[in-house]
Amino acid sequence: MTFTSNKSKQSRRPTSVHKRLLSYLLAPLLLLLIAGVAVDHHVIVSPIHNAFDHSLSRSALAIVARIHPGPGGRPDVALPSHPPPPLRAMPDEHFFYRVSLPDGTTIAGSPELPVAPDSQSDDGFSYANIDFRNESFRLASYRTNETGDPLVVTVAETPARRDRAVHRLDVAFLINDTVQMAAVFVIALVGIRIALRPLQRLSRQIAGRPAVALNQLPTENVPTEVLPLVVSLNSLLGRVRDSVLSQQHFLANAAHQLRTPLTGLKAQLEVLSRESAGTPVQERIALLQGGVDRLAHTANQLLTLARAEPSAHRASHFTAVDLPRLIGEVIDSSLDRALAHGIDLGADSRPVQVTGVYWLLHEVLNNLIDNAIRHTPSGGNITIRCGVANHRPFLEVDDSGTGIAPEEREKVRERFYRSAGSGADGCGLGLAIVDEVSRVHGAQLSILDGSSGRGARMRIDFPAVA
Fold first, then answer.
1. What is the residue-wise DSSP string for 21-87?
2. Which of 155, 366, 392, 424 has the most other CB atoms within 10 Å of its CB?
3. Could you tell me where the beta strands, DSSP code E, fall in 186-261?
4. How far apart are CA 10 and CA 15, in angstroms?
5. Structure pTM?
6. Backbone dihedral angles phi then psi of residue 217, each to the nearest 5 degrees
7. Per-residue pLDDT at 126
8. Strand runs (DSSP E) across 113-260, as ranges?
9. Residues 18, 22, 27: CA angle, nearest 5 degrees
């Protein structure tokens, strides 16, 4: 269970600042929208009800105007018991009235219609909401003495019109508030994007920096909230730069301290070999010389691999390197060894330049030629090529040797890996150095079959020419 939990935490994608700000802003805006609609509804309900109550009271007054003294002193109402609805009434509206005495005696209208409780208002009207004949009604009762006798005129209508009016205004306010909130949200979205531009610019600066760039980040136009982060990054870059400089000094000292005694030891062994010529000790001295040579080669390879680390090189170390010239220099230094092994060493160079560290590319080509000579039998050939293919400069070493099996082409890039046919004098660092230097230059090392159908072709494709 713990493993699953840790795995789910690792797979969880981090939330961006942009999304977090929007989420924090969206919730209050939704609450404000709901609150705004509720307040608007509360504000419009009372005026609408007052307007419709006033209209209902006018209906009651219209009925009062039709009350006249009748025979025997009893009031006479010139209206049918079920009057037609007013012209403003909707098809689903119903209207009822009742004229009664204070003791409840009905003079005209619907006798079962209740009377609103007396609210002692100045205008004589009182209102109530009732359920009548299985429907909701708004009731208005008017107490008057205008006809000479105290009367109660009650009118009732279904609240369909006022409900429709409230609903329409609610919808109108909802649309209006939603549009306003959407406008605020869009403005906030644009504002957040503008406010986060310094962060995005800083992110692009960091992402676009080469691995060898350890100079400090600029602090101009950096927001106050981000400034401590930039200052911390600059402090970290300073410590890393100091560490790299210390490592470079160590490597330089180590190279000197290792090469000097090894060179002296080799010189002493050569003198001892000449002095012991023809004696039984000479064979052991020859073995010791071979061991010292391998030790010196391994030490040089280790130092080269350490100095090939990306952090060991600044942008100023990268210069324009002419590949045909580089090939010519390396062939001159390797030609004697190739001839001693009976190998034809040649070049097929075309004019091309790359941006790189010269001595690293020199070391890479040396390693590739060294591997090719060790794995190419006598009578074979090695060709070094350079040029441009698909807008990308390339450098390759093509031999007719034993080659590298496809299943081992990834393994030989690993440090200290030695294939079965590598020989006793290899240390397993040659291709590891080539691969590391290729990455430092943004290039790609490919291990291919030899162009003659035999051997191997080591190709380095550099970044495309701008």
1. HHHHHHHHHHHHHHHHHHHHHHHHHHHHHHHHHHHHHHHHHHHHTTEEE-GGG-EEE-S-SSPPPPT
2. 155
3. none
4. 13
5. 0.49
6. -80, 145
7. 92
8. 125-132, 135-144, 151-157
9. 160
